[in-house]
Amino acid sequence: MPETPFIAVGGGLAGAAFALELARHGAPALVLESTRTAHHKVCGEFLSAEAQALATYLGLDLKAMGATSIATFRLASGRSHAEAPLPFRGAGLSRYRLDQALLDAAEAAGAEIVRGVTVGELEALEGRVVVTAGKRRFAGRAAALATGKHSLRALPRPPSDMVGFKIQLRVTQVALRHLAGVVQLAMFDGGYVGACIVEDDLVPLCWVLHRDLLQRIGADWPAQSAYFSQSAKIVAELLHDAVPKWEKPVAVAAIPYGYLRSQIIAPTIFPVGDQLAVIPSLTGDGMAIALYSGIAAAQAVLAGEDAAKFQERLVDRLRPQFRWAGIVNRLFDTRILHRPSVAFAGALPGLVTWIAQSTRLRGFEDVMERPKPIRSGLKA
Ligand SMILES: Cc1cc2nc3c(=O)[nH]c(=O)nc-3n(C[C@H](O)[C@H](O)[C@H](O)COP(=O)(O)OP(=O)(O)OC[C@H]3O[C@@H](n4cnc5c(N)ncnc54)[C@H](O)[C@@H]3O)c2cc1C
User: Fold this and answer.
1) Which CATH number characterizes residue 296's domain?
2) 225 Cα: distance to centroid of ligand 1 (angstroms)
3) What tens digit of pLDDT does each residue of 40-99 get?
4) Has residue 44 been placed in a domain?
5) Distance, CA 327 to ligand 1 centroid (Å)?
6) Residues with Cβ < 8 Å from 372, sequence gap 6 or more?
7) Helical spans, DSSP H, in the chain
8) Which of 208, 287, 360 to mutate to test the pocket of ligand 1 (most atoms within 8 A of CB)?
9) Do the beta carbons of residue 278 and residue 257 sit within 8 Å?
10) Of 112, 207, 264, 363, which has the highest C-beta tally within 10 A?
11) What are φ and ψ of residue 185, in 5° steps?
């Protein structure tokens, strides 16, 4: 059985950040990723200030990668909408580009990336971690559980009836001008739909629905887009003459919003990203949590901290942010509050900016205070 000291199971943002942070401190790391090439993910592709700072710490130049700049939040329901300044400057960049860049950076720093490997089991056995993928097995001293939106069978997360979708659009010049510098969310009965602009003037449209609504309207793009267009005027305007880049949206089911993993898996197995915590998507901060927890897990491993302490520390750090995000999520989920919320946002944009600030990751700067990485020297 091949042996690498540190293994990331899943090569999304959290797993790649874990491997990159270890590799650039000279520690051998392996990433096992199920997809074979860069791929599109269900994500609104809005990067918060925290996500941008953490990506920059990891060595990415988001602007050079084509990230757009976003300064305004727009909230809509039915025929009305309101705008408020974001408490920071956000960015738009596709996950297709971002995730691959992070894996490339991890590889360049010395991590081994193995794609096309779908892990079935991750266990702690006799003082080491053992990863099983079909007939292949890998062993190491510690692992990051970084499978994101997909749980391993033996390590489930709670059930949920929330389903997420994304499709990439080419929109008209008029629609592009209206969306420039903006991240927008439109609420409807049973879910919400968000949009911003990413590189090359592409628009990812991303939405979340309760399963019963999905059963009513159907999973195909024409039916869903017709439903959104009826539900919010700004979405109808965005979709007018828009051309989808793919035949059907990418989708993910059973998103356990609000989940914070309390159960410890093993002292050597570090849950990171969506396997540690799932913030409601409307906050646009899940990527920050993924990057933060991946880096923090790598630093915990380097410092000899066990996974239980790491997990308790991170969950405590995330709790206040999750409390606020949960309140906002309930508001989005209560149809009679949609119109008053838009009216309120129009009347008190400063309060909206303050609420947006309350749903952010706090104290993330601590992982960036570590001494500058060395590329070799540490013997793991
Ligand atoms: C609808 C929606 C909209 C969102 N919008 C935003 C947003 O605008 N901004 C924001 O910051 N966050 C957003 N998020 C949250 C964000 O997408 C996640 O928090 C983030 O992707 C988590 O990163 P991760 O690395 O944990 O998981 P993922 O990005 O899901 O990566 C996990 C990786 O593991 C791989 N994998 C899975 N199973 C296995 C296996 N068994 N073996 C090997 N590999 C495996 C997958 O292929 C994948 O590459 C949104 C989420 C949803 C659902």
Assistant:
1) 3.50.50.60
2) 23
3) 999 999 999 999 999 999 999 999 999 999 999 999 999 999 999 999 999 999 999 999
4) yes
5) 23
6) none
7) 13-23, 49-57, 95-108, 173-179, 211-217, 221-231, 233-239, 286-303, 307-332, 338-347, 349-358
8) 287
9) yes
10) 207
11) -130, 130
